[in-house]
Amino acid sequence: MAYRPKPIGDILAELMARRGYGRVQSAATFDDAWREATESLPIGPLVAEHTRVGALRGGKLEVFVGNSLLVQELGYEKQSILKRLAELLPDEGIREIRFRVEAIR
Predict the structure, then answer these.
(1) Disulfide: which of 46, 59, 69, 89 matches 95 by Cβ 3.0-4.6 Å?
(2) Which residues, at least 6 apart from 39, have a Cβ–Cβ distance to it below 8 Å?
(3) pTM above 0.85, yes or no
(4) Position 11 in a domain
(5) Which one, of 59, 47, 63, lies nearest residue 86 by Cα?
């Protein structure tokens, strides 16, 4: 059986997956979309400073929030944020946002 070289694109994709670069890029994409989706809210400056986007699992985007009062305020805006995220990230299938209180640095 003759040896066939792999296309360079396949090799690079495999290397990036092994090193975790895909997750880093994905996290940055979610973070940018989150910031853009929430910047027009009345509490937009607080959101940028006191939230951090986590992982997307099963259509649920996890968002870490610095305090419970901000979680409550974000809850009021949840549907508009979801709509905007769907526009910004149509291929991700974000159907829900789960807020978790955690210290943000």
Answers:
(1) 59
(2) 47, 48
(3) no
(4) no
(5) 59
- Exposed, middle or buried, 83 (CB in 10 Å: 0-12/13-18/19+)? exposed
The amino acid that residue 73 corresponds to is: E
Q: Is residue 17 part of a domain?
A: no
CB neighbour list of residue 75: distance below 8 Å, 6 or more residues apart? 99
Rg (CA), the chain: 18
Residue 53 lies in a domain: yes
List the single range of 22-31, 42-51, 53-62 with lowest mean pLDDT.
22-31
29 close to 89: Cβ distance less than 8 angstroms:
yes
Residue 69: inside a domain: yes
Whether 15 and 42 have beta carbons less than 8 Å apart is answered as: no
pLDDT of 69-102, one tens digit each? 999 999 999 999 999 999 999 988 999 999 999 9
- For residue 82, give the nearest of 71, 94, 90 by alpha carbon: 94
> What is the Cα 27 distance to its own chain's centre?
5
